[in-house]
Design a protein that fits this description.
heterodimer, A: 316 residues, mainly alpha, ABC transporter involved in vitamin B12 uptake, BtuC, two-stranded antiparallel sheet, 2 strands, 73% helix, globular, B: 416 residues, alpha/beta, Rossmann fold, 2 domains, five-stranded parallel sheet, 15 strands
């Protein structure tokens, strides 16, 4: 039991940190521009493929730096020449724009790297088990993922809370017109934030790529869950996104570990009527089988009972 | 508008030209109805490459009954509805042999459509050559006289795999993990019943279902397998769900053996190599390239040299087409009404090993020697590696034809 709890906690925290890396950029963009950026997970995918391509030629570490910068620049271009133009036509147009962008990016990736998974490897220097608990090895690479995510969280917090640019970003979140009146170029702040957000997603892609599978559908599987993180954490709140990511990571991991079902709670279903036949399926579904639904259940509950999210300051 | 009219005119004249072409040249037409766009496109394209290769080969030898074989592709987008439209289109263009395989739901739709079409249109019968769909119902409760299955169905694969596992004394505790949908459940149910039976000497220590193509982090599942004390895992997972599972196992240093159905699919050998699981992942198929049978190895080398970007093929497609051509020659007719009886009960030397398989008359299921193979470093006479990993599939066990035979519930309706 202790074994499962310990290992599940570790796995949950790790998965949560990966989610946070991606959600941090998305939450800031969402709260500043009021637009749900559907293409955010696509920047994550771009990061993974850029990282792979660079690692093939000059190694993993240059990729970790160069790929996010490139993707961040692409993000800024998208904001400057795409979103800003579309912005005039309202939020629906922006939403559709980012939605369309996901398909374009996916098609481009397929054209360049094909539909099959690419062989993106963990750098040899990190390819060893860091420690062993209860006969389960823990790869050093996962510890590296964890440390990177924490470092980025701290750096972001520092920038937003302690620097001048952070102050402007914070002010633009709640009072963009006022910030504009004071002589700051709000458009440029938006562009910068969009670029940094895309870059952060790319960092997540570069470090998750070797651990998971790098292929052209990788954005699909993570896209929807990011929105859950943003809404649960609360708009514009980095701390909220951090807590929500961990919460979702742990929730999913512990759900998988559980084999409980209604049959365990209330005993086997007796009787053979039509009702029993209908209920039979539901009765024996384990919590583990529902693990993928858990985050969305949380989303629904939060929207009903606390619409501004865990740490948000305004209603969604 | 003018421009639009103009392009329509061009399109129409082009259509006319191709139609004329089809009429002008009397060929033996084979319609290939499989995904050529969307998610299944990679698998579908491989089948098309291979069919064209087969056609070129036989055409070089003078064709079938003196006619050139023509492969006509129809993209079904892996969608049952679209498939039926495409089958109808193929029939309208004079196709009487439909080759289809990807997706059991698609195969079920095509099988029932073809059966109904044939009963309503005597004299225009078509035959459905299924090269990949393995849902048992296709050759059991829903079997059809006009459908032939060339891949071993789920029941056969589970039977062969579990027999192999039961015969292995090192296997004591097995963990089952499958995707939460019809195929995963049919494998898990059959395997749990077979492995958990009295006297098998095997304990099933877990029967897990994972949401289909939704899980990103498989490490919690690995922790559960680890905690269960299993020495072997049997999984029906394929694609991402298998690759991520295996990579997570490699990360955690989980030292079990893996018994799979689809570890040979594109991308998975790469994941196995990355996880470092040498000689620990097994699959059951109708054969692998490294079987020591020279005629096959030479042809595979030739095929790969012509398709360097997609050096994958399906051995059963060679069997399927070889048998159709043989039946047509024997019947001296390309009318399915005449050559289908020749296919029934036909014995055929398999492409992969030259051993004889047979098409069972009762349910139109093909039975062939099955192989359990593991992925690892190659030895002598094993020239084929997978996806540039340096590792290839090596035979771990051979299941002779008579040990693969399972009963059928098929009660076939035959035309008078």
């Amino acid at each position: 039991m202790l074994e499962i709890v310990l290992i599940s906690s570790l796995n949950g925290v790790l998965f949560g940190m990966l989610l946070f890396l991606m959600a941090s950029g998305l939450t800031v963009i969402f709260s500043m521009m009021g637009v749900l950026n559907f293409a955010h997970a696509s920047f994550y995918m771009l990061g993974a493929f850029f990282g792979f391509e660079i690692s093939r030629h000059v190694g993993f570490w240059p990729g970790l730096v160069v790929a996010p910068v490139l993707v961040g620049m692409i993000g800024m271009l998208v904001e400057r020449y795409g979103l800003r133009t579309v912005h005039k036509h309202g939020h629906v147009a922006e939403l559709l724009f980012t939605f369309g962008l996901t398909f374009i990016i996916q098609e481009l990736v397929q054209m360049i790297w094909g539909k099959l998974a690419v062989d993106y490897r963990v750098p040899p220097i990190l390819d060893f088990p860091a420690f062993t608990i209860f006969s389960t090895e823990y790869p050093a690479y996962k510890i590296f993922e964890l440390l990177t995510a924490i470092a980025i969280f701290l750096a972001l917090l520092l920038v937003i809370k302690r620097t001048r640019i952070g102050l402007v970003v914070q002010a633009s979140l709640s009072h963009p017109e006022m910030v504009g009146m004071l002589g700051h170029n709000v458009d440029r702040v938006f562009m910068l934030v969009f670029g940094v957000g895309a870059g952060l997603a790319a960092v997540a892609g570069v470090i998750a790529g070797p651990a998971l599978v790098t292929q052209s559908n990788m954005a699909h599987s993570l896209g929807p869950i990011l929105f859950v993180v943003v809404v649960v954490g609360g708009l514009g709140s980095l701390g909220g996104a951090f807590i929500a990511s961990l919460l979702i990571g742990l929730l999913q991991t512990f759900a998988v570990a559980s084999n409980a079902s209604l049959a365990d709670a209330f005993g086997e279903l007796t009787g053979t009527g039509p009702l029993a036949a209908y209920l039979g399926d539901i009765w024996n579904v384990t919590v583990a089988q529902l693990s993928a639904v858990m985050p969305y259940l949380l989303l629904v509950l939060i929207l009903i009972f606390r619409p501004r999210g865990l740490m948000g300051t305004r209603e969604t | 508008m003018k421009k639009h009219l103009f392009s329509t005119a061009i399109a129409l004249s082009l259509l006319g030209a191709t139609a004329m072409h089809a009429v002008a040249e009397d060929t033996f037409k084979i319609g290939y109805v499989d995904p050529l766009s969307g998610g299944g496109a990679a698998a579908g394209q491989i089948g098309l490459n291979q069919l064209k290769y087969i056609a070129d080969e036989i055409n070089g030898k003078g064709g079938v009954l003196g006619k050139q074989v023509e492969i006509i592709p129809y993209d079904n987008k892996l969608d049952p509805q679209v498939s039926l439209l495409q089958v109808q289109k193929a029939i309208d263009q004079g196709v009487r042999v439909i080759v289809q395989g990807n997706g059991s739901s698609v195969a079920a739709a095509v099988e029932s459509f073809v059966t109904k079409f044939n009963s309503r249109n005597p004299g225009k019968e078509v035959v459905h050559i299924n090269h990949a769909a393995i849902d048992p119902s296709l050759t059991n409760d829903n079997c059809s006289y006009w459908h032939f299955a060339f891949d071993a169905n789920v029941n056969i694969k589970v039977e062969a795999m579990t027999n192999f596992m039961k015969a292995n004394d090192a296997i004591k505790k097995v963990y089952l993990i499958s995707q939460d949908y019809s195929f995963g459940h049919s494998v898990a149910d059959a395997a749990a019943k077979k492995l958990g039976a009295e006297g098998s000497g095997i304990e099933v220590v877990g029967n897990e279902f994972v949401p289909l193509q939704k899980v990103t982090d498989f490490s919690p599942y690995i922790a559960k397998i680890q905690a269960s004390g299993a020495d072997s895992v049997m999984t029906a997972n394929w694609g991402n769900d298998l690759q991520l599972l295996i990579k997570a196992a490699g990360d955690a240093g989980l030292g079990v053996n893996w018994y799979t159905f689809y570890a040979g699919l594109a991308g998975t050998p790469t994941a196995i190599k990355q996880a470092g699981l040498e000689d620990k992942v097994f699959q059951i198929t109708e054969g692998v390239n490294n079987i020591d049978y020279q005629p096959m190895q030479e042809k595979v080398k030739d095929y790969i040299s012509k398709h360097k970007d997609a050096p994958i093929y399906y051995p059963r497609l060679f069997n399927a087409m070889g048998m159709v051509f043989k039946a047509v020659e024997e019947a001296n007719s390309e009318d399915p009404v005449k050559f289908v009886p020749k296919l029934e009960g036909m014995r055929y030397a398999d492409f992969i090993d030259g051993k004889e398989g047979f098409m069972r008359k009762d349910d139109h299921q093909y039975f062939q020697t099955m192989y359990i193979s593991g992925l690892g470093a190659l030895g002598a006479n094993q020239p084929f590696d997978e996806e540039g990993t340096g590792w290839g599939w090596k035979v771990a066990a051979t299941v002779p034809v008579d040990e693969t035979i399972v009963p059928t519930t098929c009660d076939m309706e035959r035309p008078n």
